[in-house]
């Protein structure tokens, strides 16, 4: 397969100004007529007078140049992925009309035009438009689109595309037509079409300039009662973007369609977002609090793309983080403002530190602006999205909120309507603030997670604290030597009595509660003055940079920070690091066959947390939650999944035994019958209650088993019901099967709830999980063609059940490789997402390494292998 390089970028040879599309719909044979108004790109230096359009799986019917001359075989050449027209006008604009047919029913890859539960819909990012018609399928070709759709009135009563509806009417043979016009220039990856039997929920939003916007959410009829939260979220997002970024919506209509078969979360097509049902549908009895929060976040994310992605798009796909990193940062801030800032930051960092850091340390590590790819779909990664957002966040930290806003204003002003680069974004920040960000730009080009070393020296006579920070970044594939990065390290100081110590850097600086240390050199000292005693340093507050601090704090100091750090992130993190220290000791004990005795300091620290009173109960729950097995995996040189699991269980059990009373009291205090309101208070009460329940389930006690069963049977909302089911499925509970069967019967008509049913079983640490997962593959509700089902069974087992997936006999690996090979032929995008669980093979013992490697080799030698799967499997073996 061909590798595409950033360094080879050249401007397009031709431009397309206007696209007139017409679709005559049929499930197996849709006819597409595309009329392109084009011209030679004056900026292109190529002397080639032919025109190459991309296209895949298309049946070409005819090609007409300038309305009248139909081209013959000798005028063009068709290849499996292109149409080359040998000669087109060079001096003036021309019109090219192409007619082709496509087969949406045969499209199991869910890219281009495909069928989902009888509905026709599109997915064009990144390169799906070429599966609809021949085109210049690249993001720097921006055109205005008019789309006419013709379809049967019964099968396709609703016909949607981008922009505003400009016409429609009846046709013979029970057919009808609708025309849509999108006045904004856009790349073809933002094109969308939806047709089907859909119902609509409608609302309105008045923008800051007084424009009235119609908001519509289209779903299948039985889901009409689950759109309320998505609609509210959309209105909140629209208001937030006006308040925080001064950005207003531009069309008269904003449509969202929910589909059951979708490769990712959602897609920001101009004026017509298409969403995975998972990120739209919610009712308190069917969706958990986490689902509600995710829906708000994803609705916000896609809405924010209207400016960061659509009005200003990417020049090429290497610049993906330009729109994704920035938009993730925007959605994180939106959720932080809407819910709890402290909790949101912790959740985001948790994901970054467990999953993105692993990606950055493995064979698939790449910069947030990659410089080469075989299949661009493989680069919708945690690095491009989440680390990309951290890079934008660092700019926000370095420039301050006001400086960042000046920079974003200039970015929107300079580049509206353009396809630009990450560099253009940084330049706008630079110009607007009069700063030099040249070193900061390295974050875009350098892969890997920097390690920041810390050494401190207190001079009692001088009353100074000297903090020496250093940085180094381990090599990553293709990048051995790394250069120092520009790292903002937000730092505060705490006196030994727990009060904040003021930070004064140098003699003349004003004292502040915290400072941003700008680490730019390999090693750099910062001197704080005016300190009466040696303070405790609170470093990297709010996780101000995506780095690993190399700090070996004594457990007493961590316990101190857990009690006193005013920074909510660092306070939580101190508890996490303390637990990691204790668990690391237990992991070693387990490996040595020693008894697992939990350090009382940890129990004491957790007791103190329990004894305090907390306003934010969700934050309180996070303080009470132990680091995950995946996070512990990241801390080990050679991963021992069994030792990690048993050490963590031992700590959870010890906490449950020794803190039983306060945990019980808390559980009972919040065990109210709540209907599932989505407000911070109710969410917090459910969260702390369910955290307590999962601790109490560690006790081998009938009353605890009874509590979980009772909660399962009486829960009025999905958060409580699923929390109880999870506890039951994760322990030897006598009612396990009965609950699973009851849950299935209750929810068999709600696909998203059945996804939870599959996932809960796939993630269970109980013996026999592998056999159950294997059995579930044959369950009538399992469908390998549905990505949500694949993720809930195969994804959950391989990515969230380390104990069983990494069983020493290799059965988990074999199971996954078999599924990947099967999926490879059906849906390469989903197949390649599953490869991730095998790519970290170097982190395991020799036996597991050999077995994982053997499965990767089996995958690579599959006879017909997609570019998607090949790229990840081959690169991880290299
Ligand atoms: N911009 C979108 C990324 C995307 C995608 C979405 C759905 C299906 C396939 C896809 N390929 C790429 C989603 C986003 O980041 O908002
Ligand atoms: Zn996005």
Automatic annotation (TrEMBL):
It catalyses: Release of an N-terminal amino acid, Xaa-|-Yaa- from a peptide, amide or arylamide. Xaa is preferably Ala, but may be most amino acids including Pro (slow action). When a terminal hydrophobic residue is followed by a prolyl residue, the two may be released as an intact Xaa-Pro dipeptide. Transmembrane segments: none annotated. Its cofactor is Zn(2+). SUPFAM superfamilies: Leukotriene A4 hydrolase N-terminal domain, Metalloproteases ('zincins'), catalytic domain. Pfam families: DUF3458, DUF3458_C, Peptidase_M1, Peptidase_M1_N. Residues 556-878 form the Peptidase M1 alanyl aminopeptidase C-terminal domain. Belongs to the peptidase M1 family. One of its GO terms (biological process) is proteolysis. This is Aminopeptidase N. Residues 230-443 form the Peptidase M1 membrane alanine aminopeptidase domain. Residues 20-190 form the Aminopeptidase N-like N-terminal domain. GO terms for molecular function: alanyl aminopeptidase activity; metallopeptidase activity; zinc ion binding. NCBIfam families: pepN_proteo. Signal peptide: none annotated. It comes from the Bacteria. It comes from Methylomicrobium album BG8. The keyword Metal-binding applies. Residues 448-548 form the Peptidase M1 alanyl aminopeptidase Ig-like fold domain. Keywords: Aminopeptidase, Hydrolase, Metal-binding, Metalloprotease, Protease, Zinc. Aminopeptidase N is involved in the degradation of intracellular peptides generated by protein breakdown during normal growth as well as in response to nutrient starvation.
């Amino acid at each position: 397969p061909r590798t595409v390089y950033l360094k080879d970028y050249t401007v397009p040879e031709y431009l397309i100004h206007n696209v007139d599309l017409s679709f005559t719909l049929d499930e197996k044979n849709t006819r597409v007529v595309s009329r392109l108004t084009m011209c030679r790109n004056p900026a292109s230096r190529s002397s080639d007078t032919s025109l190459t359009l991309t296209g895949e799986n298309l049946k070409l019917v005819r090609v007409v140049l300038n309305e009248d001359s139909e081209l013959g075989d000798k005028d063009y050449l068709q290849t499996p992925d292109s149409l080359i027209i040998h000669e087109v006008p060079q001096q003036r604009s021309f019109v090219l009309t192409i007619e082709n047919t496509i087969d949406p029913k045969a499209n199991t890859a869910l890219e281009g035009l495909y069928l989902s539960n009888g509905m026709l819909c599109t997915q064009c990012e990144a390169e799906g438009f070429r599966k609809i018609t021949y085109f210049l399928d690249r993001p720097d070709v921006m055109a205005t689109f008019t789309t006419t759709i013709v379809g049967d009135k019964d099968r396709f009563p609703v016909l949607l595309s981008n922009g505003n509806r400009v016409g429609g009417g009846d046709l013979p043979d029970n057919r009808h037509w609708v025309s849509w016009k999108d006045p904004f220039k856009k790349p073809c990856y933002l094109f969308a079409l939806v047709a089907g039997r859909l119902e609509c929920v409608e609302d309105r939003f008045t923008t800051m300039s007084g424009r009235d916007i119609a908001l519509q959410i289209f779903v299948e009829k039985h889901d009409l009662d689950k759109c309320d939260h998505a609609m509210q979220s959309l209105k909140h997002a629209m208001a937030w973007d006006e308040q925080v970024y001064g950005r207003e919506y531009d069309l008269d209509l904003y449509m969202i369609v929910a589909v059951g078969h979708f490769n990712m979360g959602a897609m920001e097509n101009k004026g017509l977002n298409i969403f995975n049902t998972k990120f739209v549908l919610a009712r308190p009895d069917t969706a958990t609090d986490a689902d509600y929060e995710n829906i708000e976040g994803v609705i916000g994310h896609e809405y924010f793309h209207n400016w960061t992605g659509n009005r200003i798009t990417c020049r090429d796909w290497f610049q993906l983080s330009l729109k994704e990193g920035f938009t993730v940062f925007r959605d994180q801030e939106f959720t932080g403002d809407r819910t709890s800032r402290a909790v949101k930051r912790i959740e985001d960092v948790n994901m970054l530190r467990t999953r993105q850091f692993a990606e950055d340390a493995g064979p698939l590590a790449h910069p947030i602006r990659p410089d080469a790819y075989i299949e661009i779909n493989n680069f919708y990664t945690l690095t491009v999205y989440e680390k990309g957002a951290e890079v934008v966040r660092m700019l926000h930290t370095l420039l301050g909120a006001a400086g960042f806003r000046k920079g974003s204003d200039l970015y929107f002003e300079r580049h509206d309507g353009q396809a630009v680069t990450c560099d253009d974004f940084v330049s706008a920040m630079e110009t607007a603030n009069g700063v030099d960000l040249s070193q900061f730009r390295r974050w875009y080009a350098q892969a890997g997670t920097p390690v920041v070393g810390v050494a401190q020296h207190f001079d009692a006579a001088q009353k100074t604290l000297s903090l020496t920070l250093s940085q180094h970044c381990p090599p990553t594939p293709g990048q051995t030597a790394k250069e120092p990065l520009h790292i903002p390290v937000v730092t505060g100081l705490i006196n030994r009595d727990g009060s904040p110590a003021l930070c004064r850097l140098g003699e003349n600086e004003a004292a502040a509660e915290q400072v941003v240390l700008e680490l730019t050199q390999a090693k750099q000292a910062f001197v704080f003055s005016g300190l009466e005693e040696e303070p405790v340093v609170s470093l990297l507050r709010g996780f101000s940079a995506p780095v690993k601090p190399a700090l070996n704090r004594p457990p007493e100091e961590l316990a101190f920070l857990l009690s006193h750090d005013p920074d909510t992130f660092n306070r939580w993190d101190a508890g996490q690091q303390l637990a990691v220290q204790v668990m690391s000791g237990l992991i070693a004990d387990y490996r040595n066959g020693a008894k697992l005795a939990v350090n009382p300091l940890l129990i004491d620290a957790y007791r103190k947390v329990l004894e305090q009173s907390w306003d934010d109960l969700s934050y309180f729950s996070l303080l009470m939650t132990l680091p995950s097995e995946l996070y512990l995996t990241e801390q080990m040189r050679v991963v021992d999944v069994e030792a990690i699991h048993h050490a963590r269980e031992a700590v959870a059990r010890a906490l449950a035994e020794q803190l039983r009373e306060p945990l019980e009291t808390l559980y009972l205090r919040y065990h109210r019958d709540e209907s599932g309101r989505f407000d911070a208070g109710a969410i917090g009460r459910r969260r702390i209650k369910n955290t307590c329940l999962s601790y109490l389930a560690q006790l081998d006690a009938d009353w605890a088993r009874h509590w979980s069963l009772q909660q399962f049977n009486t829960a009025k909302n999905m958060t409580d019901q699923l929390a109880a089911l999870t506890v039951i499925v994760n322990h030897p509970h006598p009612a396990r099967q009965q609950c699973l069967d009851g849950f299935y019967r209750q929810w068999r008509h709600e696909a998203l709830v059945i996804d939870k049913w599959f996932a809960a079983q796939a993630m269970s640490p109980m013996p026999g999980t592998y056999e159950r997962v294997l059995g579930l593959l044959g369950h009538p509700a399992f469908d390998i063609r549905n990505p949500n089902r694949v993720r809930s069974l195969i994804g959950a087992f391989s990515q969230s059940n380390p104990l069983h997936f990494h069983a020493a006999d290799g059965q988990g690996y074999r199971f996954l490789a078999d599924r990947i090979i099967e999926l490879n032929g059906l849906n390469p995008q989903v197949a390649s997402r599953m490869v991730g669980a095998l790519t970290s093979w170097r982190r395991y013992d020799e036996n597991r390494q050999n077995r994982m490697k053997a499965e990767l080799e089996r995958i690579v030698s599959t006879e017909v292998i997609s570019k998607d799967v090949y790229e990840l499997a081959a690169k991880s073996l290299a």
